[in-house]
Amino acid sequence: MENDFFQLASLVAADPAYTKRLLDYYNRVRALVKKRSRDWNIGDPAVRNTIYMLLYGMRAATEEVLLQADPQNYSPALYVTDEPSVTPTASIFGITVHSGDLLVSRGGAEVSALISRGNDYPGNFSHVALIYVDAQTKQAWLVEAHIEKGVAVATVAQYENDKKLRFMVMRPGHDLAMLATDPLLPQKAAKAMFEEAGKRHIPYDFKMNFYDSSALFCSEVASYAYRLYGMQLWKYPSSISSPGVVNWLSDFGVEHFITQMPADLEYDPQLSVVAEWRDPETLFKDHVDNAVMDALLEKADAGEQIGYNRWQLPVARVLKAYSMLKNLFGRTGIIPEGMSATRALKNQYFVAMHARVKNRTLQKAEIFREKNQYRAPYWQLLQFAREAANEK
């Protein structure tokens, strides 16, 4: 099925008039795989590999088609599965969402690419937000954990203004045993997380320890909320085993490498993909960031370290002290709570390294486009990124 889909996608990329039909077919197959996988043994690595190969592989092929197609031929908002829900609704980027839905997104920051790709199952998503809609006022809120300030609540307008390269709406299946018994379970989970975020300051969990709820990272906001009502998301946690990725994530404070990665929610059989939002320009940026990060992680596996300017450390420590003082008064500091001065400098080094390789990759991609009159596909972007990463 996957091989046939790849061949079909290649033909449609050459004749984009069939783009919409390919998207319809992709949605049907994706929904079928998600539904059938509920009866599969996800604990078996071979089964998990198959689900990943199908869902990520078909996504990759479809997006290559979209990047060659006329944007007028498809809408940025793509509906996938009409998963029933009785919880209150709201609208985000023109997509109807329900209270308790999970919004899995990709940010534009360099660390977002690291989170997306630094996984045994590299993906396209780096962040999870939980949506809560008040049943009385119909006001919608997004509960999410930010590196800069910990768990916070945002309005829909604030969420839409935050830089997003893409996002996907996921919803628990209405026919799951727990939801069949209590259809309002997602609303209760979302409300509980919303209220807890208002009662206490919850710092960001740099360690990525989902067993400890005193601090939460983005995935943990969703898993913790649903766990309060007996539903376990990420039944089979994510794993990070690449030595280079482990070393780099350790530099940013991560201590747990069996954890919950945002991109892996796409393969959770309990959740249906309801809709996606992506447009050609942000989609291309996503692919470029992925290629750059994949090239950099190859260098990480080869032993390259994230350095920092030691001469800046005294200044960074002063800024950290100032940031800690601001944190005491409930304000956001220049250096995030839970991040040391040394790690802040390493983050600065990492951002500069990514930016350098990305700029050179974009230059090479533009030359390719001018010469060939079409956008460079991912494998070509990856080659450009490898070349750029090795240039002095």
Q: What is the element layout, followed by pairings?
A:
Elements: H1 2-14, H2 19-36, H3 45-68, E1 77-79, E2 89-92, E3 95-98, E4 102-107, H4 110-117, E5 127-133, E6 140-146, E7 150-155, H5 156-161, E8 164-172, H6 177-181, H7 185-199, H8 218-227, E9 238-239, H9 243-251, E10 258-259, E11 271-277, H10 280-301, H11 313-328, H12 341-372, H13 378-390
Antiparallel strand pairs: 1-11, 2-3, 4-5, 4-8, 5-6, 6-7, 8-11, 9-10
Helix pairs in contact: 1-3, 2-3, 4-10, 7-8, 9-10, 10-12, 10-13, 11-12, 12-13
CA-to-CA gap between the ends?
A: 43 Å
What's the gyration radius in Å? 21 Å
Which secondary-structure class do the elements indicate? Answer: alpha+beta
Helix coverage percent: 40-55%
Low-confidence stretches: none
Task: Name the beta content range.
Answer: 5-15%
Concise summary:
The protein is of the alpha+beta class and 392 residues long.
Give short descriptive properties of this protein.
392 residues, alpha+beta, endopeptidase fold (from Nostoc punctiforme), 7-stranded antiparallel sheet, two-stranded antiparallel ribbon
Structure in words:
This protein is of the alpha+beta class and 392 residues long. It has 3 domains: 1-74; 76-278, endopeptidase fold (from Nostoc punctiforme), CATH 3.90.1720; 288-390, no CATH class. The chain has helices at residues 2-14, 19-36, 45-68, 110-117, 156-161, 177-181, 185-199, 218-227, 243-251, 280-301, 313-328, 341-372, 378-390; strands at 77-79, 89-92, 95-98, 102-107, 127-133, 140-146, 150-155, 164-172, 238-239, 258-259, 271-277. The strands form 3 sheets. It has a 7-stranded antiparallel sheet. Strands 2-3 form a two-stranded antiparallel ribbon. A hairpin with a 2-residue loop joins β2 (89-92) and β3 (95-98). α11 crosses α12 (341-372). The N and C termini lie far apart (43 Å).
